[in-house]
Design goal:
By secondary structure, this protein is mainly alpha-helical. The chain folds into 2 domains: about 1-30; about 45-80, no CATH class. It has helices at about 5-30, 45-60, 65-80.
Length: about 90
């Protein structure tokens, strides 16, 4: 068998395998998917996050809002790993 014939045979085998895999994949997509076994876990509500969202919506006015300033300080302390219960 010469190289040209071997290359043609390899191409035909490759196309046949690709068509088979495509047919199997298309057949699986037609099946209805099963519903999830358990509902996704929701993280507990974080009041700080809600306050920060409110401050974000206030825009420039948030810079003079005492609640926003306190929320930003708490967020900063959480990020830096500081303990807010001790004295500064």
């Amino acid at each position: 068998m010469d190289g040209k014939m071997l290359a043609r045979l390899g191409a035909v085998v490759f196309v046949a395998i690709a068509l088979t895999v495509t047919a199997i994949d298309m057949a699986r997509k037609d099946e209805p998917s099963a519903p999830p076994a358990a509902p996704a876990l929701q993280p507990p509500a974080d009041p700080l996050r809600e306050t920060l969202r409110r401050c974000q919506q206030l825009g420039e006015a948030a810079a003079s809002d005492a609640g926003c300033l306190a929320a930003w300080a708490e967020s900063r302390d959480r990020f830096l790993g500081r303990d807010r219960s001790g004295a500064r």
